[in-house]
Write a structure and sequence with these properties.
Helix content: 25-40%
Number of strands: 8
Mean pLDDT: 79
Shape: globular
Structural class: alpha/beta
Order of helices and strands: HEHEHEHEHEEHEHE
Strand order of the largest sheet: 3-2-1-4-5-6
């Protein structure tokens, strides 16, 4: 299992927003790699700066789910990601929070405007490094940064606001399935890896 708990995800989303250029809340757009975590990070970005959220998915039938969870523009990644994102935002997005991995960084760079930022914060599809990396991989004028911190990086007041939004129904932390006891950890991990059930997989330890 991974450490993508609610505080960790909110911290990642907050760091991603802090890393990009601040030209005004109405101008901020995010292109996020699709994963159960994207729902929380998208909602976090919306709450933190009022961002317009673009999220990728490889499954067209999940577009409705993503919209229901706060994504403004679900985009099906069929190998033409940059083209589709630029159809929505011709100049490119202000920032991209990369959750899929280094293998898709070239596509992500193609979605971002000049002076925009790509924040690498996860590799849910694998690919934590780029063999033979060259600085010229990054397009001219586009910034690349990363976040590998922990939940402790999140200020308590910021997390309190997030919890308040959750209580008021302005923020949704989707739970895919609840498992009971250590004997079901294997099932939970298998479901996470299959990607068949989007959302957070929660293991409750029995007393």
């Amino acid at each position: 299992m991974n450490d993508l708990t609610l505080p960790r995800l909110v911290a990642a989303a907050r760091h991603g927003t802090d890393c990009q250029s601040h030209s005004g809340p109405s101008d901020q757009r995010y292109s996020c790699g699709n994963a159960p975590a994207v729902v929380i990070t998208a909602a976090s970005a919306r709450l933190i700066i009022g961002a317009t959220v673009i999220s990728t998915t490889r499954h067209a039938n999940r577009a409705g789910e993503l919209r229901a969870m706060g994504v403004d523009h679900p985009v099906v990644d069929d190998g033409r990601l940059a083209e589709k994102v630029r159809d929505l935002v011709p100049q490119g997005v202000d920032a991209a929070l990369e959750l899929v991995g280094c293998t898709v960084l070239p596509d992500t760079f193609g979605c971002v405007r000049v002076h925009g930022t790509v924040c690498f914060t996860g590799a849910l599809a694998g690919g934590w490094s780029i063999p033979g990396f060259s600085p010229f991989l990054t397009p001219s004028g586009v910034r690349l940064t990363s976040y590998a911190g922990q939940a402790a990086d999140l200020p308590s007041d910021a997390f309190a606001r997030q919890l308040q939004a959750l209580a008021e129904g302005r923020f949704t932390a989707p739970v895919a399935k609840v498992y009971h006891g250590l004997e079901q950890v294997h099932d939970a991990q298998a479901d996470v890896e299959s990607g068949a059930i989007p959302g957070k997989h929660v293991v409750v330890l029995n007393d």
